[in-house]
Structures are given as structure tokens and as C-alpha cells.
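ok here's the first one, seq then C-alpha cells
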Amino acid sequence: MLRPSFVPPWPIRRLRDLTRYRVDLVAARTAEKNRVEKLLEDACIKLSVVASDIFGVSGRAMMAALIAGERDPHVLAQMARARMRTKIARLEEAFNGHFDDHHRFLLARMLDRIDSTEADIAALDNQIEAHLVPFAAAAARLDEIPGIGPVAAAVIIAEVGVDMSRFPTAGHLCSWAKLSPGLNTSAGKTKGNGSTGHGNRYLAGILGEAAVVAGRTDTFLGARYRRIAKRRGNKRAIVAVGRSILVIDWHLLASDDARFTDLGADHFTKHLDPDAKKRNHIRQLEALGYTVTLTPAA
């Protein structure tokens, strides 16, 4: 049984204050960047269509020029740097809009707010690093998990702590975090409804981000993500892999001697039952319109 009213020690509470505020500031910065893109679209400036990141060196130089009064598409396009210079012709077309003083005023305010928020995030990162020192060993172990970086490790420690004695098993931790799918029982049949309930949004958010990153890796977690996404969609894959990461977190935090060991991207194929392999291949061929007849090899 979990203690109903657990108050984490003050070092964890202070770390949590910092990490949660950082998450909120990152969300605020993202919202402000979205406003910038919407404002440019309103002015028929299609910079985001050409540039993958309009807030890189080239994009910021072009937007600064717009604020300063430059309107010549050729001049603006020539501010491209590095690989962006291969897109100068498209950039010239992108700047054929009607950017006026109204857009200039708003863009200046939005970029100032983005810069201010980024400075605050950098200051928070320094504070988080300092407050994480007592938990450096635990953070280093979590950092070994695919998809988990220093920021994610700090958030996980801030939200669940490092004392796993209040969670008898990894399943208890997942249940507390609302990452255990609900079950519906009807007519003697039990089915998962896929719903995990509403848990800690900061923990769920960072585990979801880690799951997406892990899904791009050539690891066990990456293979698990792709298998589930193929059958049930990306959203379910994110939840499932996020839960797997949390299970690994519990084991790494429950023992100072525990270390992460990747099972490998080929874990599923190596341990798949031969009959299951056969059924999978037959199913895939039948889905392509073939009738399959199996004949044992000599």
C-alpha cells in the first residue's frame, strides 16, 4: 500500500519547483514561437515553408531585418547562411508578402519575449544542475536509458524522488503515475480500454517525450515503440514505451548497484516462438493477396 499523504524531502521539493517552472516556460516559449509563425503567415511571409527552423541564425537575421524596415525579398533572402543558401530563390518568393508596421510592432514584442524566456530557461538550467548534485549518481543511471537526457532525468527525480521504498514494485509506481491501462470486465471477458487516467502531467509529459526519442533509436525500446505503433498507432506506443521507461526507472532507483542494459533491437525476433513467426509471415503474405501453402523443406 502506498502512503496516502507522502511529502517528499525539501531538496526534492525545491528541485521540483525548478523543473516544473522550466517545463511551463518551455511551453510558453513554444506558444510564442507559434504566434510568430501565425503572424508571418498573416503577412503572407512564407518563411516557415522554406526554413525548417525559422528561429535559427538565418531566420532570426531575416526577422530582425523585417523589424528594422527591410522589405526587399532579394536583400532578405541573401541573409541566408550555410545550407539555407541553396534555397535563396524560394526565400525570395517567400518574402513577397505585405509585412507592415502592425506586423513589425507585434513581431518585435514576440521575439523579445522569446529571448527573455530563453534567458530564464538558461538560468533555471543552472539552478537545476546545482540542486541535482545530491542526486547526481541516480541522474547518471537514468541518463543511460534511451530517450532520457539530463533534463528528463532531473524531471523524473523531481517527480518520483529517489526513494523507491514507498513503491513496493515497479507496477505500484506505474499505477501511481496512472500509466497502468484500465480494464473493463463484461460477460466474463476482461478487456483493456487503453485509458490510463489522469496522472502527473509533468511526469507523463517527459516520459512521452522520452518515448518518442527512444522510438527513433536502434534499441529494445525503439523496436518496442515501432512494433506497437505499427499495430495500434503512435499514441498507444508512446504510452506503452513511456511505461516501460518508468519501469526501468524504478529498477535503477531502487538499487544503487543497478545499471541499464539494453536488450537490443533484435530482442523480439530472437525470442519469438517459431510458430508465431510462421503465423506472422503467413498473415503478411495473405494481406498482400496471396494464398499460402506451406511445404516442409527436405
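and now the second one, same deal
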Amino acid sequence: MAGFFRSNSNITSTDANIVLLGVPDESKSLARRKGTSRAPNVIRNASNDTEYFERNGKVIPISPMRGTVLNKRVVDLGDFTRDELYDLVVGLVRSNKIPVIIGGDHSISTIILDAIGSSLGKVSLLYFDAHPDFVSSTRNYYGSVITDSAGAIEFKHSLLIGTRAAEQEELENASDVGLEICSPLDILEQGIVNFADKIVKKSSGNRRYISIDLDSVDPASAPGVSLPSAGGLSSIELIYLLKRVVSSGIIGMDIVELSPDYDFNNLTANLAARILTECIASIEL
């Protein structure tokens, strides 16, 4: 089987049930750390380098920890502009395909959520991020994703996960709409298995969307992000939570905010590649 990001002439976008898109755009980022626009290809390269072996002229995929990639029809359509993203996502979800989008800065999630919301209705959002991205005093940037996407989110069935760097304004906005915030301390106290049970139950339904800012992970394990914040999730905690949720059903997901220039030994890029493998392996079709 060819890798997700390797040429596979046997799979087209029509045949695929999982469609990967890159959005190399950081035009709505205010971070001092730049470079997220280079992330899609960096993640592709990391996947090809770390998730597959080559031996005797064959490409051999690494088996995921749980689940399988062998029965998944995955196609990478390449990179697109943020202006093209809305129509692409609308077309995919209306065709019952699962879009997996790689950014870019987190503002692309607003476009994705709006596209899904207009097509299918409000989503249950699981938002893995060190920051709530719920600023309302400033709009249309990577820190106002939740504000800008509010019309597409079913707040009572959504969660902010891994949050630890919130502004007071964001905390008040979350409280006003009943959006629960779960810090790494909350997850530690509840235990990872119990917390996974909680988020699966709370976000239950046919329209569950996952957004993953890589800064949800502690910078000791994921240094290559735009806005690192100490005290985050471990890599395996994030992967476990994602696999539990994905296996319960999703309509799409994104991975954002890799800043390659600040990565160390490709730790963060390799983590993103592993997240892709494990999530795709856990998708039930």
C-alpha cells in the first residue's frame, strides 16, 4: 500500500472515503513565530520518512497501535488556498467523504466549520488547543476561531481540551455560551480513560469535528509550534484521546499550527504524522 502522501494511481477523489487537503496559509496569524504556511509539505515529508519503511523496492506501512489503514481509501489532493477551502469542504461532506485538513494557522478551522455547518448543521466540536481562541474584541484571525464560527458550533456538546493559556475575555465568552474548558490538570485528575469516556459521551451524535492545534501538546514533546505553552498534554495522551473519539465517528478533522523553523529534530512534524496515521486507522467506515 502506498503511503498517504505518496502517489497512488489506484485511488481518485471519487473513489476515496478520506480526503487530505493542505492549506499553506498563515495570513490570519499574529504569532511572532512564523512559518506555519510551510507545514503541509513538512508533515507530508515526515509521514513518508517515519510512517513507512522501504525495502527491496517496496513501500511498507507501519502498523498503527490500534486499528488499521489497510481498508482505508485515502487520497491527498494537494494544497489549496484559503479562498478555495470552503467550496472544497462543502463538496466533500455532501459526498459523505471525511476531510482531513493540514494547516496553516488555526483560522482555517473557521472556514471548515462554516462549510460543514452550512451543509450539515451545527457540529459537536472537540478543540484541542492551549488557547481557547475565543477572543471577541478582535475578529477574523487565529485567536477568534470560536467566535467567528459560533453559528456552526453546538456549544453544549463541544469541549475545549488542553486549554491553559486563556485570556479573561475568552473565559467569560466560554461561560456565556456554556462551552466547557478542560485543562491538562482536569484531565490528570479525572484520568485519561475516564476523560476519554466523557468527551465521547458529551460530543455524541452524527456531526463530530476535531480540531488539533499542536500546541495542545507540551512543548517538551512538540516544540515546533507558533505559541508554545508549558504544561500541556503528552503525545500519547493526545493520541489516545483522538483515537477514542475518532473511532466513535467524525465528520472531519484538522491539524494546524506546526511552525517548522522552531521544531527540533522534527519532533513536532513526526508527531503530526503519527497523529494522522493513528486517526485514519481509527476511522470506522
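notes on #2: The chain has one domain: 18-282. The two ends are 18 Å apart (CA to CA).
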